[in-house]
Recover the amino acids of this structure.
């Protein structure tokens, strides 16, 4: 311990162990000291304890943007997001909810936005959070969590990442969600994977090739070929023209003598009766 330490508060002591114990003893009423320690202490362990005690989302968001330690940035960001989500989802104060949503937007936490889009009590906040979703994984989270068919359909419709869509189709235990994802997938290889691995039977069946449609296409091709054949047959053959109409309409000659006599003998036979 140095001579100067005698005149310093313990949270500024030169010995990291003393500082750590001093920060652990701080309460939420000493938020200013906690914020100072979280911003300036040289030891990541001391800063972590201060961050874990802070309950001011704005300060935490600032630390999340500036701290040199990646793990501490993630911790501060997570705590700030949790506080803002809670404020955005309450229904007592719309201004507080709007401010919390703006904080989340500045933080850039798409998963937290998806939670607000699903849970917020105020409809305008839900809608605004939904509109701000850009990350395909966050949209998938919203599609899984929501109980609204309309929100689910809209969220899946905005997912452009085929790998995320494939994961939704395979992993979802909700038939409706899996079917929505399959409808947006293309490519035989991807559909074969879904047909083999999807949790729900309906999704597996939808991902399989459709033999009925293939058969219909075959029948349509056959009808087209037959129509073309009939059209060609109806056209006159210039090399072998058809016989003259007079020949076609000429009465045929009797094939035998009975056939030539019968018309003349018929009245006599009737009279004899």
């Amino acid at each position: 311990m140095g001579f100067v330490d005698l005149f310093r508060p313990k949270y500024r002591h030169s010995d990291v162990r003393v500082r750590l114990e001093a920060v652990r003893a701080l309460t939420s009423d000493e938020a200013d000291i906690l914020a100072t320690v979280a911003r300036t202490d040289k030891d990541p362990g001391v800063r972590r304890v201060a961050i874990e005690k802070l309950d001011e989302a704005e300060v935490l968001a600032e630390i999340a943007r500036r701290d040199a330690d990646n793990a501490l940035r993630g911790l501060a960001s997570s705590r700030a997001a949790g506080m803002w989500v809670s404020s955005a989802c309450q229904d007592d104060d719309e201004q507080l909810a709007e401010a919390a949503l703006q904080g989340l937007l500045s933080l850039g936490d798409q998963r937290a936005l998806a939670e607000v889009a699903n849970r917020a009590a105020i409809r305008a906040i839900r809608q605004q959070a939904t509109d701000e979703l850009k990350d395909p994984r966050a949209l998938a989270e919203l599609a899984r969590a929501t109980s609204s068919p309309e929100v689910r359909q809209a969220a899946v419709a905005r997912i452009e990442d085929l790998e995320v869509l494939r994961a939704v189709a395979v992993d979802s235990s909700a038939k409706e969600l899996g079917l929505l994802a399959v409808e947006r997938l293309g490519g035989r290889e991807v559909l074969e994977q879904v047909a083999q691995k999807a949790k729900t039977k309906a999704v597996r069946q939808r991902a399989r090739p459709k033999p009925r449609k293939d058969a219909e296409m075959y029948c349509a091709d056959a009808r087209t070929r037959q129509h073309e054949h009939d059209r060609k047959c109806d056209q006159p053959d210039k090399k072998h023209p058809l016989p003259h109409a007079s020949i076609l309409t000429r009465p045929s000659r009797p094939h035998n003598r009975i056939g030539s006599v019968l018309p003349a003998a018929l009245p006599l036979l009737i009279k004899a009766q």
